[in-house]
Design goal:
The protein is built from 9 helices and 8 strands. By secondary structure, it is an alpha/beta fold. It has one domain: TIM Barrel (Alpha-Beta Barrel). The protein has an 8-stranded parallel sheet. The protein is globular, with a radius of gyration of 17 Å. It starts with a helix and ends with a helix.
Length: 229
């Protein structure tokens, strides 16, 4: 508990200071503790330290963990989602970060409608155009958004990205900046009543730069729980 509490305290201080330095309100930044491959007791320690939103990547692992916690905790799916796993995801998670195709969005819509639920989603953008990563291309984003906005049972809350990794976080800045500009340039063309308030970008190694460039959701694992075994 002591290590996790210290890590979270330090992390929150850094987030606060960086947001203020960037001229932003720290309250607009959501901290998602990525708990994949993390034990139940460690998650409980993080909850006791004030974390209310956790992120999981693997469906089978999440199905074992999430029922052990109260409904006051929010769970975000931050990993890749296959269409055939959607039926397991909707009852467990409050937000899906990784929607990258109309086919996946349609499956979520169908399942959510059956459950009389509105599922919050983010559209994943492959901002670095990497073959090894999922996500719609920046060029394909407007069309995908147009198609997704028409679906029932879905609330599009913003965009998510996983940029290329660099040992020097400053090298990631252009990708975060491009994401923000990509989102902002979409505003004039959005249908009435729609907005894209969230940018999910920034992990343990680069979250401070992500804050500078407008991130509203940080996906932090290692800086809270340490290296996974």
């Amino acid at each position: 508990m002591d290590m996790i509490l210290e890590n979270i305290t330090r992390l929150r201080e850094h987030i606060y200071n960086r947001a203020v330095k960037a001229g932003r309100s720290p309250e607009e930044i959501i901290l998602v503790a990525v708990s994949k491959m993390v034990g139940i007791n460690q998650i409980k320690d993080a909850r006791e330290a004030g974390i209310t939103t956790f992120g999981e990547s693997y469906i089978q692992e999440a199905r074992q963990k999430i029922p052990q916690f109260s409904e006051e905790i929010k769970w975000h799916l931050v990993g890749h989602l296959q269409t055939n796993k959607v039926k397991y995801v909707l009852p467990l998670f409050s937000m899906i970060h990784s929607v990258d195709s109309i086919r996946l969005a349609q499956e979520i819509s169908q399942r959510a409608t059956q459950l009389e639920k509105t599922m919050e989603i983010l559209i994943q953008v492959n901002i670095g155009q990497e073959n090894t990563k999922s996500g719609v291309s920046p060029e394909g984003l407007p069309q995908l958004l147009e198609e997704v906005f028409s679906l029932k049972g879905i609330a599009v809350k913003g965009l998510m990205t996983m940029p290329p990794y660099f040992s020097d976080s400053e090298n990631v800045r252009p990708f975060f900046k491009k994401m923000r500009e990509l989102r902002d340039n979409l505003f004039p063309s959005l249908p009435d009543g729609f907005s894209l308030p969230h940018l999910s970008m920034g992990i343990s190694s680069d979250y401070e730069v992500a804050i500078d460039e407008g991130a509203t959701i940080l996906r932090i694992g290692t800086a809270i729980f340490g290296e996974r075994k």
